[in-house]
Amino acid sequence: MRQFQVRKDNFTEGRLVDSGADNAASKIAANEILLKIDRFGFSANNVTYAAAGDMLGYWQFFPPYGDNAQGWGMTPVWGFADVIESNVSEIPVGDRLFGYFPPATHLKIVPINISAQRLVDGAEHRSKLPPGYNLYRRVNAEPGYDRAMDNVRMLLWPLYVTSFCIWDALQDKAWYGAKQLVIVSASSKTGIGLACALSADKSSPDVVALTSSRNLDFVNALGLYDSSFSYDDLTGIDSTMPTALIDMSGNREMLARLGKHLGNNMKFCINVGLTHWDERGKPDGVMAERSEFFFAPGHIQKRMKDWGPDGFTRKTTAFMQQAFVQSREWLKLKNVDGLSGLSEIYPDVCAGRIDADRGLVVEM
Ligand SMILES: NC(=O)c1ccc[n+]([C@@H]2O[C@H](COP(=O)([O-])OP(=O)(O)OC[C@H]3O[C@@H](n4cnc5c(N)ncnc54)[C@H](OP(=O)(O)O)[C@@H]3O)[C@@H](O)[C@H]2O)c1
Predict the structure, then answer these.
(1) Residue 58 is part of which domain span?
(2) What is the per-residue DSSP string for 17-81?
(3) What is the atom index within ligand 1 of the atom nearest the CA of 165?
(4) Structural domain includes residue 318
(5) For a pocket test of ligand 1, which of 78, 188, 192, 330 has the largest count of ligand atoms closer than 8 A to its C-beta?
(6) Residue 153: inside a domain
(7) Which of these three, 280, 297, 314, is where a domain ends?
(8) Which CATH number covers residue 268?
(9) pLDDT tens digits for range 316-361
(10) What pTM value is reported for the model?
(11) Same structural domain for residues 167 and 231?
(12) What are the pLDDT digits (tens) for 280-310?
């Protein structure tokens, strides 16, 4: 059994740790099942989990083992795993789960709230964490479950469900009175998913992409944005129109420049991500007064209450189906060979050296 861990105080540094006998399969408790992790996706989102590890509690999901374990943590990933041992009668060996995992070969969980479609990990250390992250889908029970879609689903679903929620929240707020929306770090998958939702919505204001100059051609080729600008040329954005920003970057200096350019027409900024985690910082002035952190699990919980879990699944599934089809036009999957492959490519993900059209698939 093996884990890929990162230093909590300097998450760009990683290490591979092989476990001792205390994590052996034979040690599962009476209420536990043992999962063998089969595959997972990896993107800037997983780096952000590490960057926000202390602030949002991401280190608490999957405690690491090994020397000086308290100084290290595991950044969660989305993927698929198979049940290889079970002490829980409702969950047979061979069941396959989609959900939140550590970058590790195995995970023990305590299934509760079990239904044919889903279960929840009831482990004590996860009980106070956002419920959406503790839920696992039992995919063998899904009508039409197609293993061939696993890679795209694990890479895009967690990001596109956020895109869907941002679109829903923007619509709910009547676009904050904006006549144009600027998506910052527009080449990110979460940004592309949002552009996809907005381009299918006739009532949406114009959608402007803001990205680095190296990703400008890629963003233009997507055909989802009405116009696009690089960070260096952001003063080209029409500042006479009321504007809302949806920021995946967290880049303080660039957002301050954008805020200054838009002046009082900067109506609201939704802070979603930290792709530029090494340029992050607290905004000030109008940018601070008119901005809000967006947390997808919170919005999902709210909509599950409003629409019911089935209503939520119905609406998001309809969006995913069209957005996954659209992704065929640009997404190139890149296989990464297990945890050792991940440890090799991890510094490139942290430094933003992965091409925007790549989807990293870690195959165990
Ligand atoms: N709040 C929430 O609930 C929530 C939920 C889901 C995702 N998110 C966040 O949304 C963000 C996007 O995630 P993703 O997985 O969709 O990203 P991704 O597809 O991996 O994004 C890649 C893009 O991010 C930028 N980038 C990445 N690393 C960089 C670096 N070190 N320096 C500069 N630019 C870098 C580049 O875009 P540009 O050149 O266009 O800047 C790059 O093309 C993440 O911060 C993620 O945590 C938040």
Answers:
(1) 2-145+331-363
(2) EE--GGG-GGG--TT-EEEEEEEEEESHHHHHHHHTHHHH-GGGSS---STTGGGEE---EEEEE
(3) 3
(4) no
(5) 188
(6) no
(7) 297
(8) 3.40.50.720
(9) 999 999 999 999 999 999 999 999 999 999 999 999 999 999 999 9
(10) 0.97
(11) yes
(12) 998 888 889 999 999 999 999 999 999 998 8
Q: Whose CA is nearest to atom 25 of ligand 1?
A: 275
Question: Domain tally for the chain?
Answer: 2
pLDDT at 55 over 90: no
pLDDT tens by residue, 169-222: 999 999 999 999 999 999 999 999 999 999 999 999 999 999 999 999 999 999
The CA 145 to ligand 1 mean position distance, Å, reads 29
pLDDT average, residue stretch 131-150: 95
DSSP H helical ranges for the chain: 44-51, 53-56, 150-172, 189-199, 216-222, 252-262, 285-289, 296-327, 338-350
Residue 232 sits in the same domain as residue 141: no
Distance from the CA of 30 to the center of ligand 1, in angstroms? 40
**Ligand 1 surroundings by CB, under 6 angstroms:** 43-45, 48, 159, 162, 185-190, 211-212, 215, 248-249, 272-276, 294-296, 351-352, 356
Q: Closest ligand 1 atom to the C-alpha of 46?
A: 47
